[in-house]
Design the sequence.
């Protein structure tokens, strides 16, 4: 049986149900929605209604804006190795090896990947990893760029394998996750409410677009929706 299109009464019911959700529940809805977009059928349906990569990026950015108050400073002595220590160790170990491997054999790559990293030591690892990822972007859709393949192969031969690079990225992510808030007073309740409202406005727009664009109940459930027709009881919240 095909799902009926949601009508004005159905939209009103959706809004009433969602109004009952608290900030954490709303954020959970957004996460479920964004992760549901991994399904190619859902992504295709949403793309047909104007949903683009930048809209996906906006969702994650808005979600990130409602989380600063949840980030706490590291407890004194709470870890054997702090995230900053770990990233410094990765930098001391692998960036010199990358430099030695590239300077003679691939000077253009060396410049692209390593130039001026010494000037910003705290950003050296994420900058290096971001530059390396950028080399992988194809000039034509469908294949890694030749320069990216050359860089990965040469670095892997010196020990900078995909696993080691992934470890570097995880180390960078740990720094971002555990970095203390510089001034907790900067994150006021007003700022949180504004960020929460922006996130929820984004969700309301695209969730209603999804309800109109997608007909399969199974796909709607993957996005976190449980209402199946305009006339059925709203189960949101």
Sequence:
């Amino acid at each position: 049986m095909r799902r009926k299109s949601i009508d004005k009464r159905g939209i009103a019911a959706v809004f009433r149900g969602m109004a009952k959700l608290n900030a954490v529940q709303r954020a959970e809805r957004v996460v479920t929605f964004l992760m549901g977009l991994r399904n190619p059928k859902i992504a295709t349906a949403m793309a047909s209604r104007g949903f683009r990569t930048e809209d996906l990026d906006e969702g994650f950015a808005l979600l990130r804006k409602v989380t600063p108050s949840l980030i706490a400073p590291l407890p004194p002595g709470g870890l054997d190795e702090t995230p900053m220590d770990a990233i410094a160790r990765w930098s001391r170990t692998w960036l010199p090896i990358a430099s030695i491997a590239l300077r003679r054999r691939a000077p253009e790559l060396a410049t692209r990947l390593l130039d001026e990293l010494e000037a910003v030591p705290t950003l050296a690892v994420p900058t290096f990893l971001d530059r390396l990822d950028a080399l992988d972007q194809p000039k034509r859709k469908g294949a890694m760029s030749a320069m990216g393949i050359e860089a990965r192969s040469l670095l892997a031969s010196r020990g900078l394998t995909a696993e080691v690079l992934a470890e570097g990225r995880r180390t960078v992510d740990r720094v971002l996750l555990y970095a203390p808030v510089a001034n907790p007073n900067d994150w006021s309740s007003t700022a949180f409410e504004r960020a929460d409202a922006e996130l929820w406005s984004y969700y309301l727009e695209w969730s209603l677009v999804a309800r109109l664009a997608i007909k399969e109940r199974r796909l709607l459930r993957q996005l976190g929706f449980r209402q199946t027709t305009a006339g059925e009881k709203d189960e949101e919240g």
